[in-house]
Amino acid sequence: MKSALASLGFKQTRKDAERAFVSSPWHSVTKGDGTAPQLNSVRYFSFQELKQCTDNFSEINKIGAGLFGEVYKGYCTSGVVVAIKRASKKSILSGKDFQSEIEVLSRVHHKNIVSFLGFCFEQGEQLLVYEYISNGTLFNNLRGKGGIYLDWKQRLQIALDSARALAYLHELANPPIIHGHVKSGNILLDENHNAKVISFIFSKLVPEKEKKQGSSQAKRTVESVQSRVQYVAGTPGYVDPESLQTGLLSEKSDIYGFGVVMLELITARWPIKIGKDTNTYTFLVEEVKRAIDDNDQEYYGLRDIIDPKIVNQVTTVSLKKFVLLALECLAHSGSDRPSMNKLMKEIDIILQQAGSERTAKFDYSDDSESATNSRSILIP
Ligand SMILES: Nc1ncnc2c1ncn2[C@@H]1O[C@H](COP(=O)(O)OP(=O)(O)OP(=O)(O)O)[C@@H](O)[C@H]1O
């Protein structure tokens, strides 16, 4: 992390850092009260610096918008590119809340989670600075909008990368973190098509006034999620039905969202489709469940639903196992869903099998195993 920061080219000296920290509103919050944040691996960016590297937050540098606010591409003087999330007025947190979010963010380090580089908190602004991930969201790429063609094995690898990231958040991060908003739009692809999970902290970045009693690290109200799904396109299809009933989010809500992402990887379809009259909805989960046919040895009943771009590549065994695993994630009751750790291991096995199934095909042997795998040739 240190070298990444040094290469940012802002030439931050210890003096600069101290000056910046003193001028930040946290100074008054933390001074002498023993709650100084552990910010060893992140740096403070002045608002002026961020303004400069985004050309005054120009439209041309705007790359997206989420519930926290708008996201800008920023060019550091060294040429390093960063992604800057600028809180909208309604997302501004109290100094203490922002501080605790920064503390959590600064402790998360995983190769499949977008790196958090620093923050800014001055002039009534709150900004988060991340490494910039160049190849867009999985959501867009699956729908041909990101310019990347993803074959079946790459999709399995993306599932594995994302599962690793979420398993880390659930089981290794300290304190454990519930993502709260798992969707293909929150999985970015880097230049080597590695998956990088983003936005995991957002569900905690809910303004104080929107929080309900009982909101904590482990159990957060789902009210904010519900209010968000009304205006975030595509998100409703990912919401765990059990959390909607109980009003609480848990790790199992992330598992549900992940199950939907798994189905997207197979089908490249929207998690929810709104009919022309806007009164009818089709959930991908229901579509897949309806189509499954145990008697179909080849496609498991999903021939017409599988993304046409990969339909000639999916291998029978890996397809069936992957779908069954996704359906386990989508069980109505959270207690029936697997843990992220289990998912990670299962997907790893499926990926290895998919590899060997493919190899079997290239053997051109005439046994029944390779006959079953007759669809496993990769189309370049
Ligand atoms: N580190 C990053 N590198 C490149 N692009 C990013 C990065 N972070 C965010 N983006 C872009 O900005 C968009 C908005 O991101 P953001 O995380 O704020 O919102 P979201 O994922 O759409 O929704 P939500 O905040 O509700 O999860 C993303 O879809 C992505 O295109």
Automatic annotation (TrEMBL):
PROSITE patterns: PROTEIN_KINASE_ATP, PROTEIN_KINASE_DOM
GO molecular function (one): ATP binding
Species for this entry: Rhynchospora pubera
Domain Protein kinase: 57-351
Start and end residues of each stretch annotated as Disordered: 361-380
Record's compositionally biased regions (Polar residues): 370-380
Keywords: ATP-binding, Kinase, Membrane, Nucleotide-binding, Transferase, Transmembrane, Transmembrane helix
Origin superkingdom: Eukaryota
Residue positions binding ATP: K85
Localization per record: Membrane
InterPro entries cross-referenced by the UniProt entry: Kinase-like_dom_sf, Prot_kinase_dom, Protein_kinase_ATP_BS
Record GO cellular component, one term: membrane
Descriptive protein name: Leucine-rich repeat protein kinase family protein
Keyword presence, Transmembrane helix: yes
Pfam families: Pkinase
